[in-house]
Amino acid sequence: MKAKLYEDLIKRIVRNTEQNFDNADRLDITRSATTAGAVSANILTLIALGFEADHGDWEDRGCLRVGYIKIAGKEIVKNSRIDYNAVADLLKARPATTEEILEATRQEAEHEIERTGSVNGQIAWYHTHCGEIEMAKFLGLITEERRAELEAEWKQVKKDRIWKH
After folding, report:
1. Distance of CA 77 to the CA centre of its chain
2. Domain ranges within the chain, ordered by starting residue
3. Strands of the 81-82 sheet, one edge to the other
């Protein structure tokens, strides 16, 4: 249980840090502070569970930006840059499955579809994920039946989010 919680906290820290960088890049002062606070809370939880962890933030044009994170002797963020190799080492990561990769890329595309104000941008992100699904089928990583299922689900996103304007 503790190992699963540890892995979940590391993943949350990375996700919140990515969000923090995005918010600070967009000069969103409130959200940058919120996401930096989420990183801090998760770091403090790791410390409370007995893990070695430290972090620091800095003020960037009015926004709070995560500057560094060190967990179990691994510096996973340095100079406001995530070292994904250090994160992988920290988690002793196994290779992600095709389904995990497709879900992650779907979530990224959905996030960008929501974020962009341009219908053309939304359509571009929609087709980006279509290509990822097609590539997985082309490489033999998913069956034709699974490709059809994923594309049907993804078409619903287009109907619900892109063409609603």
Report:
1. 15
2. 2-91, 98-162
3. 53-60, 63-71, 74-78, 81-82
Cβ proximity of 24 and 60 under 8 Å: yes
Beta-carbon contacts of 128 under 8 Å, excluding residues fewer than 6 positions away, are 109
Token match 């992650």: residue? Answer: 104
Confidence of residue 4 (pLDDT cuts 50, 70, 90): confident
Cα–Cα dist 93/85, whole Å: 10
Q: Are 75 and 85 in contact (CB under 8 A)?
A: no
Mean pLDDT of the chain: 90
d(CA 14, CA 20): 10
Q: Write out pLDDT tens, residues 11-30.
A: 999 999 999 999 999 999 99
Q: Any bridge partners for residue 77, and if so which?
A: 69, 82
